[in-house]
Hints:
Blueprint: H1 10-22, H2 26-33, H3 37-45, H4 52-61, H5 66-70, E1 83-89, H6 91-98, E2 102-110, E3 113-124, E4 127-132, H7 137-141, E5 152-161, E6 166-178, H8 182-189, E7 203-220
Antiparallel strand pairs: 1-7, 2-3, 2-5, 3-4, 4-7, 5-6, 6-7
Helix pairs in contact: 1-3, 2-4
Amino acid sequence: MTHDTTAPGDLGRRVARRREELGLSREELAGRAGIDAGYLSYLEEAPASPTSETVQGLAKALELTPEELLGGPAGQPSAPASHAELEKIDRQECLRLISPGGIGRVAFNDAGGPAILPVNYALRDDSVIFRTAPEGPLDKELRTGVAGVELKIAFEVDRLDETRQEGWSVVVRGGAHLVSSAEEQAAVEGSGVQPWAGGERGLYIKIVPAEITGRRIRHGM
């Protein structure tokens, strides 16, 4: 049995969406499918080309056929349904959607204008936590130089299915708090966020949400 996956990342998005529909954690799905949980995380968050055996195992664990999981042959996306629904997502559902952690995007202004950077993040006590390099771009650009004053930034997470033309996105806005005290450092270290990039990433940045918005698009018959 051989299959071609659709555009890079489509398979991972479908796996994540179906897993969430079934209420499974990554560890639970990995156990059902007989694959490593770390590989499942990579598959959901980055372009990947799994073997046909992995696709079959995931499909069975997600209660789908391999064809349903793959979304059809490459270059032939399924036709969108006749009716699209765009819905707003409430705060609690937004938090639930982003609670597994993974990859998000930080939006801020630097000397050259608006900038967006991808980062690994974790959600802890309803706050977004990510790590960066001391003296790196984020460290320098997110400091106001005024004690007690934090720069307001945006943080975005999404899951999209390009084949079905469906997906959701969540935007968190709040102050960029650069963790400095020993007490706070100990607390955020428990978040378990692990950046993919190598090198020293000892500076933790926490966003306590002042505003959380989200929206989801679905197609119905």
